[in-house]
Amino acid sequence: MQSDPAPGPPAHDIAMWGAPGSGKTTLLAALNIALMRRKDDWKIIGSDAASSDYLIERTNALSSGRVFPEASQSLEHYRWTLVGPTERHKRRWWRRLRPAPPLKIGISMVDAPGGLFSAAPLRTGNGSGGVDDPRRRLMDNLVKSRGLVFLFDPIREFELGDAFNHLHPPLTRLAEKMLETGELRDGKLPHHVAVCITKFDDPRVLETAEKLNLLDPAPDDEYGFPRVSSEDARDLFRALCEVSASGNADMVVNALDQFFDRTRVEFFVTSSIGFFVRPQTKTFDWHDYQNLLPEAGKDLRIRGQVHPINVVEPMLWLGQRLASGGSR
Asked: DSSP 3-state assignment of 14?
C-alpha cells in the first residue's frame, strides 16, 4: 500500500500587522485557547520548535496566568498547521476505502512590532533597507503572502487616531512591489484580507454595536455571548471610524476599498479574552460582563476564564480561501 507523502512546509502564508497595542500578540496567544474551546476537531500544531514554544508559553500566560503576553519587539516568524476534522466519504460496497486524511491549512504567521512601518521610509545602501532590516524582511513576507490580517483597535483609534498611519505605508510599498512584478489585478492587490476589529469585550465597542442593533448571539453558543456577524461587521467598522481622534479613520476604509477587491476582504469583530462568565451561571450577563478590570496596585488583569471570540474564524476563512484559489 502506498504511504502518504511526507508533510512539507506550509502552502500558504498569512501576515499580520496593525498599530502598537492593537492586540497582535494577544490574538496569536488566544488562537490555541479558542481552538481548545471549539466543539470540533480543529487544532493547531507547531511546525518547528520555536512555534511550539510560542504556543505553549503564550497559551499558559493567557489562560492560567491571566496576563497579556508582551508585545513583539522584533520580527517574529512562526509556522503552524491548522488540522481539521477528517473528511467522510461514503463507503462503496464493491471496495474498501482508506480513511481520508484530515483537512490541513498551512499557515506561516509573521508578527512584527506595531510601529515598524510608521518610521522613516526604507532606504538601500548603508543603514536602513539592508537584507537584515526588519521592515524589509516584513515587506518580503507581505509580498509573498496572499493572506493578510489587519488589526484595527477602536479604543486606540478613539484616543490616538493613528490606524491610517500604520495601514497606508505598508499598503503603498506593497502595491509598489506588486506593480513591479505585474501582480496587480485590475489595479488591486491579489491578497485576501481579514480585518479584525479588536477589543469587542470593551464596553465602548459592545455598546456601540448594541446601539446600531448589530448584535446577534450565535445559536450554538452555550454561553449566549453577543456577536456581530461578518455581514454586519463592516457597518460597525465604519461607525467606530467616525469617532477617530484624528478624523482620518475614514481613509482606512477607503484605503482598503482602493487597494483590495471587496470580495477578498472580510471583517471580523473579535475579542482575545472574551466576556466574563460567572462559574455558577455559565452564561453572559449584561450586568456583569467585563473580563478586564483594574486591581489595587496592579495593571489591568484578566478577571475570569478566557473565552476568545472570532479569533479562529479569520484564520480559517483565510486558509480556506487560499486553499480554494480564492473562490467563494
From this structure: strand
pLDDT in tens, 259-274: 999 999 999 999 999 9
DSSP code at position 40: S
Phi, psi of 55 (to 5 degrees): -60, -45
CA distance 260 to 208: 27
- Asked if the structure places residue 119 within a domain, the reply is yes
Domain extent for 147? 12-86+98-323
Tell whether 249 is covered by a domain: yes
**Taking a C-beta distance cutoff of 8 angstroms, is the pair 30, 62 a contact?**
yes
Predicted model pTM: 0.85
Distance, in Å, from the CA atom of 80 to the CA atom of 103, rounded to the nearest integer, reads 14
Whether the Cβ atoms of residue 303 and residue 288 lie closer than 8 Å to each other: no
- Number of separate domains in the chain: 1
CA angle 161, 162, 164 (to 5 degrees): 115
- Give the per-residue pLDDT at 140: 81
The C-alpha cell 496566568 sits at: 65
- Identify the helix (H) or strand (E) that includes residue 79: strand 76-86
Q: List C-alpha distances in Å: 109 to 184, 188, 319.
A: 23, 23, 12
Q: How many CB atoms lie within 10 A of CB 50?
A: 13
The Cα 169–Cα 78 span in angstroms is: 24
Q: Which of 173, 157, 185, 161 is closest to 260 using CA atoms?
A: 185
